[in-house]
Specification:
Pfam families: DUF6152
Strand order of the largest sheet: 1-2-3-5-4
Helix content: 25-40%
Largest sheet: 5 strands, mixed, barrel
Signal peptide: 1-26
CATH topology of the largest domain: OB fold (Dihydrolipoamide Acetyltransferase, E2P)
Keywords: Signal
Order of helices and strands: HEEEHEEE
Protein name: DNA-binding protein
InterPro entries: DUF6152
Protein backbone atom coordinates (compact mmCIF):
# COMPACT_ATOMS: atom_id res chain seq x y z
CA UNK A 1 0.00 0.00 0.00
CA UNK A 2 2.80 2.53 0.74
CA UNK A 3 4.17 1.89 -2.78
CA UNK A 4 0.81 2.79 -4.35
CA UNK A 5 0.63 5.98 -2.33
CA UNK A 6 4.19 6.90 -3.40
CA UNK A 7 3.38 6.23 -7.08
CA UNK A 8 0.20 8.31 -6.80
CA UNK A 9 2.04 11.23 -5.17
CA UNK A 10 4.86 11.03 -7.71
CA UNK A 11 2.50 10.96 -10.70
CA UNK A 12 0.50 13.87 -9.25
CA UNK A 13 3.70 15.90 -8.85
CA UNK A 14 4.84 15.11 -12.39
CA UNK A 15 1.44 16.11 -13.77
CA UNK A 16 1.50 19.39 -11.79
CA UNK A 17 4.94 20.26 -13.17
CA UNK A 18 3.81 19.40 -16.72
CA UNK A 19 0.68 21.54 -16.35
CA UNK A 20 2.63 24.51 -14.98
CA UNK A 21 5.22 24.40 -17.77
CA UNK A 22 2.70 23.92 -20.55
CA UNK A 23 0.64 26.87 -19.27
CA UNK A 24 3.72 29.08 -19.14
CA UNK A 25 4.79 27.97 -22.60
CA UNK A 26 1.36 28.84 -23.98
CA UNK A 27 2.05 32.52 -23.43
CA UNK A 28 5.80 33.03 -23.47
CA UNK A 29 7.44 32.84 -26.83
CA UNK A 30 5.48 33.58 -29.99
CA UNK A 31 2.85 30.83 -30.18
CA UNK A 32 0.06 33.07 -28.83
CA UNK A 33 0.61 35.77 -31.47
CA UNK A 34 -0.40 35.95 -35.12
CA UNK A 35 2.14 35.44 -37.89
CA UNK A 36 1.04 38.69 -39.52
CA UNK A 37 3.21 41.78 -39.02
CA UNK A 38 1.44 44.49 -37.03
CA UNK A 39 2.25 48.16 -36.42
CA UNK A 40 0.67 50.57 -33.97
CA UNK A 41 1.56 54.07 -32.75
CA UNK A 42 0.39 55.45 -29.44
CA UNK A 43 1.26 57.34 -26.29
CA UNK A 44 2.79 55.52 -23.33
CA UNK A 45 0.41 55.38 -20.35
CA UNK A 46 2.31 53.09 -17.97
CA UNK A 47 5.43 50.95 -17.83
CA UNK A 48 6.39 47.77 -15.97
CA UNK A 49 9.88 46.55 -16.75
CA UNK A 50 11.36 43.30 -15.50
CA UNK A 51 11.19 39.57 -16.04
CA UNK A 52 9.96 37.60 -17.84
CA UNK A 53 9.51 40.65 -20.11
CA UNK A 54 8.57 44.29 -19.78
CA UNK A 55 5.11 45.63 -20.48
CA UNK A 56 4.26 49.07 -21.79
CA UNK A 57 0.64 50.18 -21.95
CA UNK A 58 -0.05 52.60 -24.77
CA UNK A 59 -3.19 54.49 -25.76
CA UNK A 60 -3.93 54.06 -29.46
CA UNK A 61 -6.93 53.54 -31.70
CA UNK A 62 -9.34 54.63 -28.99
CA UNK A 63 -8.14 52.20 -26.33
CA UNK A 64 -5.25 50.86 -24.32
CA UNK A 65 -2.91 48.23 -25.72
CA UNK A 66 -0.37 46.20 -23.75
CA UNK A 67 2.95 45.91 -25.55
CA UNK A 68 5.42 43.26 -24.49
CA UNK A 69 8.94 44.60 -24.84
CA UNK A 70 12.06 42.59 -24.15
CA UNK A 71 13.55 41.15 -21.03
CA UNK A 72 15.80 43.59 -19.14
CA UNK A 73 18.97 42.21 -20.78
CA UNK A 74 17.41 42.43 -24.26
CA UNK A 75 16.28 46.05 -23.77
CA UNK A 76 19.70 46.98 -22.40
CA UNK A 77 21.48 45.28 -25.29
CA UNK A 78 19.73 47.51 -27.84
CA UNK A 79 19.93 50.69 -25.74
CA UNK A 80 16.23 50.88 -24.80
CA UNK A 81 16.13 52.52 -21.37
CA UNK A 82 13.41 53.20 -18.80
CA UNK A 83 13.70 56.92 -19.58
CA UNK A 84 12.92 56.29 -23.26
CA UNK A 85 9.84 54.35 -22.21
CA UNK A 86 8.48 57.12 -19.99
CA UNK A 87 4.81 58.03 -19.75
CA UNK A 88 3.59 60.59 -22.26
CA UNK A 89 6.07 59.66 -25.01
CA UNK A 90 4.93 58.53 -28.42
CA UNK A 91 6.01 55.08 -29.49
CA UNK A 92 5.58 53.07 -32.68
CA UNK A 93 5.55 49.32 -32.20
CA UNK A 94 6.33 46.76 -34.91
CA UNK A 95 5.55 43.18 -34.01
CA UNK A 96 2.74 40.68 -33.75
CA UNK A 97 -0.65 41.05 -32.07
CA UNK A 98 -2.48 38.46 -30.04
CA UNK A 99 -4.32 35.79 -31.99
CA UNK A 100 -7.14 35.99 -29.43
CA UNK A 101 -10.07 37.96 -30.88
CA UNK A 102 -10.39 41.40 -29.28
CA UNK A 103 -7.29 41.11 -27.09
CA UNK A 104 -5.21 44.29 -27.30
CA UNK A 105 -1.81 42.70 -26.76
CA UNK A 106 1.27 43.06 -28.96
CA UNK A 107 4.66 41.36 -28.82
CA UNK A 108 7.16 43.97 -29.97
CA UNK A 109 9.97 43.01 -32.31
CA UNK A 110 11.04 46.59 -32.88
CA UNK A 111 10.02 49.93 -31.38
CA UNK A 112 10.62 53.47 -32.61
CA UNK A 113 10.91 56.36 -30.17
CA UNK A 114 11.88 59.89 -31.29
CA UNK A 115 12.83 58.49 -34.71
CA UNK A 116 15.27 55.99 -33.22
CA UNK A 117 14.83 52.26 -33.95
CA UNK A 118 15.30 49.69 -31.19
CA UNK A 119 15.35 46.24 -32.77
CA UNK A 120 14.67 43.86 -29.89
CA UNK A 121 14.91 40.74 -32.07
CA UNK A 122 17.51 41.45 -34.75
CA UNK A 123 17.29 37.88 -36.05
CA UNK A 124 13.59 38.30 -36.92
CA UNK A 125 12.37 40.27 -39.93
CA UNK A 126 10.12 43.14 -38.87
Amino acid sequence: MPQLRFIFLLSTAVFAVFLATSTAQAHHGWAWATDEEFEITGVIQSVRLGNPHGEVTIRADGGDWVVEVGQPWRNERVGLTREMLSEGREITVHGHRSAREGERLVKAERVVIDGQDFNLYPGRAS
